[in-house]
Amino acid sequence: MSTHNINTQKVNFKVFRFNADVDYLPYYEDYTMEVTSEEVVLDILNRIKWDLDGSFSYRRSCRHGICGACAIKLNGRATLACKENMNDMIKLFGNDITLEPLSIKRAVKDMIIDKADFWQKHDAVKPYLISDIDEYPEHEHLVSPKQAEELDDADLCIQCGACHYACPVVEINDEFFGPAAFAKAYRFEADVRDEAGTERLTEMHKEAQGVWDCVKCFECAEACPKDINPIGKITKLHLMLFDKGLATSTVASRHAVGFKNSIAKHGMLDEGTLVLYSEGPSIIKHIPVALQMFRKGKIVLPWNMPKSDNLDEIQKLVKSSSTAKF
Amino acid sequence: MKKLKYALFTGCTAKQSTPEQMMSTLAVAKKLNIELIELTEASCCGASHLQDYDDFLSLVLNARNIAYAEKHELTMVTICNTCQLNTAMTKHRLDNNAELKAKVNEKLAEVGLEYKGTSNVIHFLYAIIDDIGLDKIKEMVVTPLSQFNIAPFYGCHNIRPSELQNESHKSKENPYNPTSLDDLIIACGGMNVDYTEKNKCCGFHVELQAPKTASILTGNAIAGAMDGNADMMVTPCPLCHLKLDTQTKHASEAIGREVELPILHMQQMLGLALGCPADELGLKHHLSKVNFV
Fold first, then answer.
1. Domain presence at residue B128
2. Could you read off the pLDDT of A277-306 as tens digits, one per residue?
3. For chain B, which has fewer Cβ within 10 Å, the N-terminal or C-terminal residue?
4. Do A314 and B53 touch (CB under 8 A)?
């Protein structure tokens, strides 16, 4: 690029500072800098350290979007610092930029966080091929291109933690595996060479830690710098659980299946019956709110359930197009 | 102004737990000179849960819904973020995969229908911003909501995944810095409240299987709006509305703080500003107090 195309603008950075060894509380340092259109976010981190304050700390290594070290949050957006151009960030957020670590509550020093929970979850899903591999194979174990496509880019993960710390469930439920670990689990479940059978997949079904606690917010899909779409992998794990008959009857699995039952009967969802089918006797806990809702005209009684027009079409399609069993 | 005409996919809650959302949609459409043809044949979109159980069936059912909009040669408008997500996702997948589209159409042919891909699928919020425009809406406001601080709550499935969402509307939205609902609040004369949770999750989809997670997320959202000095929250999603309006007791217990605010559907807020009578907006169907009218 010829130099005359480079433009410069003034940006006010508010930078999270904290040293767990000496500080009781974190604070924010303000830096105003001239930023050129050529710079990526990592260049700013470098300049803060090299030109303004040598004590400023952050992780970095490859500068090529492959080591996953430099993920931070920029105005709340999970950002791989070496990947994002500052111009794009200014376009998105204006000239006031806040730089924070991926997870403030895990901050150790400035941008550096303790990723222990990330790695524990990563390890917990058995992130390796489970297979009886012949030490002296007589032939190659070929994976066809079509079979490799099944991984759906899950193997591109650089373990930067951007999706994990963007996930609202990780933030409030310590047991939840989180999107990165799920994507990793999928990567091996989808691998034709893997012989884990039910060993890994049953872990995905367990309450609190497993896929059923995903809130479907798509924060992970948005956060991933490698476009891996972790929630897409979570959906595929759900489907695998049903496909392999591992989705035992729980509130969560009945909740998914209940939609089909309702559609087959009414076309539309019968909200009350769905809750009853999902919860079973535990429906009792919903009664106080249900009564309030009933008084406000928010509950339709079973005999008044609206039905879709041309319901016969829907019923025919439910019969002919169903691909799953429960 | 030219009369706009859309095919309306109401979704299921509009007919059951959020009747006020249906009422206010119709009231606002009348004021804005929009004709809505209700797709009474439509089925449930699967709400992203059927998609976890039977992906192909969910594609067939959603393609059927869109096929009815196509029969009318109209754009489909949705009034629920999750309906929008699942319908637009189906459209995206079928429009980009001829083989899958053919498989789905093979099924639809059994009931004499075909999915062509000719109708756009757009949430009502973006339809009015794109086709009427915020300036025009502002001109039509007769009761500016100038005394209110209004906290926008966007709802995940209208803003993420952004690549999919931005296929359906001209006014591009960034999920980290969304503006459409803020702009609509301003057009209605209100003061928009900025707060961290405005583009976050309400927890609706795990209310049954992970009630604690769901309640904390709901509680955090209302608390964030309250701390921003909001008089009310407004959302384009009836599922978010259900969480924020009806689950305040559980939310308060979960976060250890009393939280409650009037929660308006986007259509109700707009309806108030456009001068629709309160009874047409269904304000009596709320659980949380709506004590400002």
1. no
2. 999 999 999 999 999 999 999 999 989 999
3. N
4. no
